[in-house]
Every structure is written in C-alpha cells, then in structure tokens.
C-alpha cells in the first residue's frame, strides 16, 4: 500500500510550515481570506467542511489562486473526499481516522492525512500504510511533550506529523522545532471573528507575524 501523502507535498509543507485553517460562510469571503493570507506570506490553507459554502469556497480559491496550496479539513465521509477532489483540493485532512475515508482518498488520488491522537490510532495508521498524519487536537492532548511521548515508540517508521488544535503564534515554534513535525495548522491566523468582520488587513498582519516566526526559527536552526 503506497503512502497516501506524496513526498513532494510533504516537502512543500516543510517549506511552508504553517497552514492557515478557516471556515467560510460566504464564497467571496473564502477568496478574500485566501488573498489576505497570501498577501501576508502564507501560501497554504485549509478550508474546513463545516459550512454549506465550503465546497464552492474551495473551488473558488483553487481557481483564483492556483499558486496556493489549497487543503480541506473535516473530511468525515468517502463522499466528501470525492467532492473536495472535484472542487480542486490539493490535499485533505480529518480530525480522526476512518479506513473508509482513507480508501476513498486513495481511489480519488487525493493526498490525505487522517487525524490521530493515541498510540492505537497511530498503530492503525501505520497498518494502513500511512506515514504522514495529522495530530489532533494537539494542544489539548498535551502539546509538544505529548507529541514526543506519542512518537517515541514509532520512531523507526519515520512518521511525520501535522499538528492542529490550539496552535497559535505563542506555541508554534514549540511544534516546528521538532524534527518529526513537517508543518502545523490552525485557525489563529484567520479566526472566524476576523473573517466575519472582513478584517482582511488584520488577517494579513497575522499571516506576516506567522511567517516572521517561521523565518526566525529557520535562522536559529541554521545558526
Ligand atoms: O476538522 C479538521 O479536519 C480540522 O483541521 C480542524 C482544525 O484542525 C481545528 O479546528 C483547528 O483548531 P484551532 O486552530 O484550535 O481552531
């Protein structure tokens, strides 16, 4: 069974490092949010499938900003896998692990990372041939220390992690400094309140702040 998440995409996430998640009530707001993120230097996003406008929003972003990496979150069913692939999504994630959703993603050739939180989840992901997983909810589960404890017994598999849930500018470096973490995701850059207020300049500022954190971290790793 091949890895459901291709290496070239993991490499793209390793260079982007931060993926801005958000939900959208309006298609136009989805594109405006993507533009605001891009203007602030964040070129990877994840739209959650939690609103009726999500699928059209994903399609609109993929058409308007082909240079951005457009991911989708909260994929809970095989049907949703096919819908988001059709809308132009580049990858998908879910809060949990469903073998049916993983199989649908393989059939649709949608790069997909299921959510894991426990050693049993991770064992199942490995049995299903996966080596790239979302850790959710990362911060509530115990953050960086939890991730280290979870990952230790599975180190020989070379698992790469994509933590989500409670990540923000204050703790993003904790996660990104772990070699097993490819990238992190979260809604702190484009929170629902700022999208509702159409505060695009505010979202751009938060994107700039996140990008600056990533760049500082890259410099300190080289030093
Ligand atoms: O449902 C999915 O597949 C998701 O990706 C959901 C997001 O991971 C979290 O909603 C992010 O959590 P916060 O950054 O704490 O708001």
UniProtKB/TrEMBL annotation:
EC number assigned by the record: 4.1.2.14
Catalyzed reaction equations: 2-dehydro-3-deoxy-6-phospho-D-gluconate = D-glyceraldehyde 3-phosphate + pyruvate
Keyword Lyase: yes
Cited InterPro entries: Aldlse_KDPG_KHG (IPR000887), Aldolase_TIM (IPR013785), KDPG/KHG_AS_1 (IPR031337), KDPG/KHG_AS_2 (IPR031338)
Record has Lyase as a keyword: yes
Origin: domain of life: Bacteria
GO molecular function: 2-dehydro-3-deoxy-phosphogluconate aldolase activity
SUPFAM superfamilies (UniProt xref): Aldolase (SSF51569)
Quaternary structure annotation from Swiss-Prot or TrEMBL: Homotrimer.
Family from the record: Belongs to the KHG/KDPG aldolase family.
Name of protein: 2-dehydro-3-deoxy-phosphogluconate aldolase
Organism, scientific name: Algisphaera agarilytica
